[in-house]
């Protein structure tokens, strides 16, 4: 019965990768004409997700600072505050904040970067320093 459920011959849905659904929700919100409700987001994701699943993802994104919300009656309307790159950066910061030795973690990260990424990081750091001096 590999790849089949007990009720018949249909394939089980592919399990999403970590953060994949959050990225899909953010992408839907970026396409929105303005603040939108949970039902609007659910519909854009294909409507096959439970309403509570969509609310859970939106609430997690709100906790991470990737979306904002405002009251609309008894529910909320949602607006993106970060894109997928911003969400990845939030995750990286959260992981870094959880470590006791930030210097060791950053040193390990930087030494493991391929040369092109290391150079890009140096350029971004130089740019951030220059921007801070204005």
UniProtKB/TrEMBL annotation:
Region (Disordered): 1-20
Keyword Transcription: yes
Domain of life of the organism encoding this protein: Bacteria
The keyword Acetylation is annotated on this UniProt entry: no
Alphabetically ordered keywords of this record: DNA-binding, Transcription, Transcription regulation
Compositional bias ranges of the Gly residues kind: 1-10
InterPro entries: BlaI_family, WH-like_DNA-bd_sf, WH_DNA-bd_sf
Family membership noted in the UniProt record: Belongs to the BlaI transcriptional regulatory family.
Protein name listed in UniProt: BlaI/MecI/CopY family transcriptional regulator
Lineage: Bacteria, Bacillati, Actinomycetota, Actinomycetes, Kitasatosporales
């Amino acid at each position: 019965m590999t790849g089949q459920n007990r009720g018949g011959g249909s394939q089980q849905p592919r399990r999403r990768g970590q953060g994949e659904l959050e990225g899909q929700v953010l992408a839907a919100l970026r396409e929105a004409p303005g603040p939108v409700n949970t039902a609007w987001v659910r519909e854009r994701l294909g409507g096959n997700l439970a309403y509570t699943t969509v609310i859970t993802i939106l609430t997690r994104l709100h906790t991470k600072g990737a979306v904002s919300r405002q009251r609309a009656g008894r529910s909320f309307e949602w607006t993106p505050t970060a894109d997928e790159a911003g969400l990845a950066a939030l995750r990286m910061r959260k992981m870094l904040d959880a470590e006791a030795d930030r210097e060791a973690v950053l040193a390990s990260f930087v030494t493991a970067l391929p040369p092109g990424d290391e150079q890009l990081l140096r350029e971004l750091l130089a740019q951030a320093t220059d921007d801070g001096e204005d």
